[in-house]
Amino acid sequence: YIQITKTTKGFIAIKLVISIHLKDISTLEYIRSVLNLGKITIYKDNKSPTCKLIINKTDLQEILFPLLLHHNIFFLTETRNNQFNTAMVILDKDIKRFDLIPDINNMVKIFNLPVDAVDYVKLSFFKN
Q1: How far apart are CA 16 and CA 31, in angstroms?
Q2: Nearest residue to 75 (alpha-carbon basis) of 107, 28, 112, 38
Q3: What's the burial of 95, exposed, middle or buried (CB within 10 Å: 0-12/13-18/19+)?
């Protein structure tokens, strides 16, 4: 998920969090090693131990988001797509204060989600 939160002083904090089961930590380690960004945190105390790759705002703005845009890769659920669009509006318009973030319904969508299952299968990043 892309976490967009308000700081104690009313500013915006943005980070991307990928959370998976601890047994799959090698996946996060691979992503981190290839992209050379983010920090891996392990949570062993849960019934189901997890690990998270947390990528900060600067790395999102300078590395990951431009990479996704360049390759036309986008998030496949409405919630994640809305989070991505919100983050992109914040970064593109250089919005600093949380209370100035526009309503999601008033934002231009960067990527439109497929309408049905067939459209998902036709996405270029699913073709080998």
Answers
A1: 13
A2: 112
A3: middle
Find the domain containing 51 and state its range: 2-126
* Cβ pair 42, 2 in contact under 8 A: no
Which one, of 124, 24, 14, 103, lies nearest residue 64 by Cα? 14
Whole-number average pLDDT of the chain: 93
Tell me the pLDDT tens digit for each residue of 21-53.
Answer: 999 999 999 999 999 999 999 999 878 999 999
pLDDT of residue 2: 97
What is the phi/psi pair of residue 4, to 5°?
A: -120, 110
Query: Which CATH number is 70's domain given?
Result: 3.10.28.10
Q: Are 43 and 52 in contact (CB under 8 A)?
A: yes
